[in-house]
Structures are given as structure tokens and as C-alpha cells.
Design brief:
Elements (H helix, E strand, L loop, with lengths): L1 H8 L5 E4 L7 H14 L3 E4 L4 H10 L3 E3 L2 H6 L7 E4 L12 E4 L3 H13 L1 H9 L9 H11 L4 H4 L6
Parallel strand pairs: 1-2, 3-4, 4-5
Helix pairs in contact: 1-5
């Protein structure tokens, strides 16, 4: 967490940070966040947020940095540049909006600068697709369910196994 905050804070931009879940090992991360809150006036941290506020924050941020699964799963369909730090999510599919870096402050800062300043990368993010869809699957499923005609035989079909 120290490398992430050092890299991000070196850019001089306002930073909004989420506290970790209650997973084992979170005490050290919480201490680093608390220290950053005390040392940096442009740094804010929050605990749990309702889903609608969380998504609203994602949509309004310039970039997302971290190693959370939400970074990989949700940033793509929200069209937000994401800097994925460390190997924790390496086995997950990820969109073209994700830049993978190691726990190195200079590498994190460089990836942040690219996500903020590289117009070509930002265009890729804006036009890119997420391997997890576009966030509108439920609407499409509901539309199909309201328009498809099901027969009695289809509804009462028995499974032979």
C-alpha cells in the first residue's frame, strides 16, 4: 500500500481511497491509509459505500489504482482507466483499460501519468469493451423474457437425468 500511495501522491492530484475489507492482514493497510490522511490534504479515504455511490465515484474518477477485483471487473464497462498493482488479479480476464504494474512507486506513477495524459490510451479506454460485458445484461435479459413466447410444453419440460 505504501508503494501505491507514494506513486499516486507524487502526482499532486486529489486522491480518494477506499479502506480494505476485513480480510486478514488489513491492519497494516489501514495504518498506511490513516497516515496518508494525516499527511496529505488532497487525500480522502472512505469505508464501505452503498453500491450506487460506489459506481458514481468510479464513473467520475480520472483513473483507478489498486489490486481489487472491482478494478478489473467494473472499470472496463464504466470506461475508466485502471492501474492494476501486483499479481493478485493476474488470473482474471481484463479489458484494454487496465495497465498492469508491480508494487513500485515509480512504475505506478508512470502508469498513472499514462492513464491521465496519453490521449491514445484514453481513446482506447473510451472505445474499449470489457470482457465482463457493458453493465446492461439484465436489461437485455428482461427484454427477451418479455418478448419470447413459451409454450406449455416448454414450461413443463421434464429432465431425463
Amino acid at each position: 500500500m505504501t508503494a501505491i500511495l507514494d506513486g499516486v501522491m507524487s502526482l499532486g492530484h486529489p486522491v480518494l481511497c477506499s479502506y480494505p475489507n476485513i480480510d486478514p492482514g488489513n491492519v497494516g493497510i489501514r495504518k498506511v491509509i490513516d497516515r496518508a490522511k494525516a499527511e496529505h490534504p488532497n487525500f480522502r479515504a472512505y469505508h464501505n459505500l452503498p453500491r450506487d455511490r460506489f459506481v458514481s465515484l468510479y464513473r467520475r474518477c480520472s483513473a483507478i489504482v489498486g489490486n481489487s477485483s472491482s478494478l478489473v471487473l467494473e472499470s472496463g464497462f464504466l470506461k475508466v482507466p485502471a492501474i492494476l498493482v501486483g499479481p493478485r488479479q493476474d488470473l482474471r480476464d481484463r479489458g484494454d483499460n487496465v495497465i498492469r504494474v508491480d508494487f513500485d512507486a515509480a512504475e505506478i506513477a508512470a502508469a498513472c501519468r499514462r492513464s491521465l495524459e496519453d490521449e491514445s490510451f484514453r481513446a482506447t479506454v473510451a472505445q474499449g469493451t470489457s470482457p465482463y460485458g457493458d453493465g446492461h445484461a439484465a436489461e437485455r435479459i428482461a427484454e427477451v423474457l418479455t418478448t419470447v413466447e413459451l409454450t406449455r410444453e416448454q414450461l413443463l419440460k421434464t429432465m431425463p437425468y
